# Entry
Amino acid sequence: MAKLCVIGTGYVGLVTGTCFADMGHRVTCLDINEERISMLKNGIMPIYEPGLKQIVDQNVEAGRLDFTTSYPEALKDSEFAFIAVGTPSNDDGEADMQYVKAASSSIAKNLDHPIIIVNKSTVPVGTGDWVAEIIHDLNGQVTPQFSVVSNPEFLREGSAVMDFMKPDRVVLGSTDSDAANRVAELYQALRSDIMITDLRTAEMIKYASNAFLATRISFINEMANICETLGADVREVARGMGMDKRIGPAFLDAGLGWGGSCFPKDVKALAHMAVTHDTHPQLLQAVMDINFNQRKHAVDKLEKALGDLKGKTIGVLGLSFKPNTDDTRYSPSLDIINMLVAKGATVQGYDPQAMKTSKEEVPELNLCQNPYDVAQDADALLLATEWNEFKSLDFDRIKANMRGNVVLDGRNIWNGEELQEMGFFYFGMGIPGSL
Ligand code: NAD
Ligand code: UGA
# Structure
């Protein structure tokens, strides 16, 4: 069993550290956010991720997992240091590397024994070499032996623990094959395919994978918009396409487009890398444009159904960027709410986990305690995030509470025919009659 530390206790770091501890390793998770570490020490999860708390508790109790804000404490005896800090977007779309730089510098300053540095953050191609330079520069002649391995993470929020424990593949990149093999050993227990390649290729695999998934979604949203004009049903189109084994059914759900802490920033960062290296990323640009237009398309539909939105009340179900997470970063729901507010509408919303951050991001949003309060006096209801609890609502109660009868099903989860029969003016995304 190995001793390792994980730097950053967000969605990736906390899940990585906890899952390695659960596989029997001794793990210290480190964060510079004192409040976060103090919460974790007190058994409180700083993020909502299904199933995570239980495994954290079990491994803390078993003495395999602890938390600290101290680099010397985290690095002590660690054979591996995983970097899992954020890489958000700069204004021009470039990945902001200040947190990776700070984490690498802190490792360098506190390194007193050989170590393998494993980069799990999603970082521009070439970052592995840059991290190695930072560590050499800071330590000069006395640098203990170290290697850098890229190990991009492919987990999804909402199913992060399962994704980590049952990955489709583990990708490792390094110029030091011994180091890559030692990281591979950490993952051996998962019995998944392990691919070892060079550093830059591993870093690129991560961006290419996220960009491809975002492309599939933008593609199906473009098909949805064409379906609307031609009277076809995009849900059936996606089903029919997905039966082709070369295409497959995943990531073909049309709706309000992709959001979250990764697709938006990663597609932008990849496009930025391309432009700064004299390549024109025309497909990536189209993928981003379609995604932005999908939000506008939803607002246009509401405007078409309600007329001028000024003074109208719109209820929004779901605020997080996808179900089963409290993450609201680049949430399609909040983007649309901002557009509605800008047009003079009053917006009231509810989410099972993301109320606090949503209110911080959009102060004009009025929070409700449940879906029925969201419907109260609303001229229209928008389903923005498909949480399970929205899938079978009491629509008699919703109808009685609403002032109007417009329902925009932004994720195509409801039975439109039934709702029409009940007297709602129902429309979805890419469904006949949805224009
Ligand atoms: P996050 O914002 O949830 O967490 C990052 C954490 O790092 C924060 O707690 C922050 O306080 C901490 N941190 C920042 N600087 C630090 C430093 N110098 N030392 C120690 N801790 C520091 O981020 P996340 O969503 O977990 O994403 C982390 C990385 O993983 C990103 O590059 C992201 O693109 C990538 N990724 C994320 C997901 C996901 O689903 N969220 C999936 C795959 C890959
Ligand atoms: C995504 C990838 O799926 C992960 O593999 C990757 O590790 C992660 O980004 C990352 O790099 O952070 P995540 O953002 O958690 O994971 O969530 P997804 O399930 O991929 O959904 C992303 C967005 O696409 C959501 O807004 C979701 O509503 C939307 N989506 C997804 C669709 O609109 N249609 C679909 O068919 C699928």
Summary: The pocket of nicotinamide-adenine-dinucleotide (ligand 1) is lined by residues 7-13, 30-33, 36, 84-87, 99, 102-103, 106, 121-122, 153, 155-157, 261-262 (CB under 6 Å).
